[in-house]
Design a protein that fits this description.
Length: about 400
Amino acid sequence: MALPRPHRFDVYIAAGGLLGGLLLAGVGLGTRRSSDPMTLFDGPWPVLVPLTVLAGCELLRRTAPRTALLTGTAEICADLVTQGNIATLLMFTDVVYAAVLYGPLASARRIQWITGLLTVAGTLVPFAVWRTAEALLIGVVVGVVAYAPAATGWIVRNHRDAAEAARLRAEQTALLAEIDRAQAVTAERARMARELHDMVANHLSAIAIHSTAALSLDEPATSKQALSVIRENSVAGLAEMRRLIGILRDAGGDTEPAAAPTLDGLAALVDGARANGLDVHLDTDEQVRVPAPVELAAYRVVQESPTNALKHACPGRVTVALARRDGLLDVRVISPYGHQDGPRAPGSGAGLAGMRERAALLGGTFRAGPRGALWAVHATFPVSEGESE
């Protein structure tokens, strides 16, 4: 399998080391004299073999660092029996550094240990044999050529890994923040949709039903009564819309957000449904006290159910019942149910979805469906004992 192309920077290092070594060899500059006992191959030209091979190792310093280190180690040993070349030593130190920086983590740790042991051995063994201070220089040279590059590569690798980990953490944090932002936007849009539907849909439904009655019946008294109901619901719906728009714009100043409806307003809500022509009966304990979120959700369920009954139910009584028992607020709305030509006003189905969402958000339950000749809406909201407004 062909090796990957070397990095451009590695090509520059290899070319520079090779040209520098050739220049030193050409002028006869070596690291040892010809008279040195270790110099088995005299002259400037034998140094070219390890020099050229190490220049080739520089081309592999990123793509195959372990191969480059093993080959470079063999060539630096071969360089010891020649007059030597400083460029060869420098390229070997770079190969050691690159093997620790770019090689596998396990290999980087082993190179650290091996070069450290070689440095210690190169210091203690010659001194124990020759008993001269000059023998300690061998350990210094081994440390400079082998251990120092390995230690430097390890430090740079740790800094690089730390920087990469910090970058990944920053990206993950940014991704989580974006997910949270998207979820918050989605939740807020769903909340706004529920509030808009609950505040305005019942008024618009009443307008649609009574306008249909006014157009279909040629009775002045009935038409006048229908137009009166239409006007009342138009004014109320417009007021609700203005309050909602004021909240969305966060206008401040004299524009105060509307107070959240409470269960105390159920009587007025039922009276409004009766004014719209619905026979509604309210059965609730006046002493029911629950937390504000539960109170708002229960109020919206009761508000939506008569609206649906007005649009879809057959003639008959609608019963609204609220009771607190066993740590739950129980809301039930029963209306007549039967076959008819179609709804008296168009619906989107968002009302049932909104009630189900409100119950789910508070950990409650919601069920709606036919029960024989009746349509039953049943919602429960958990309320801890002692928890109240």
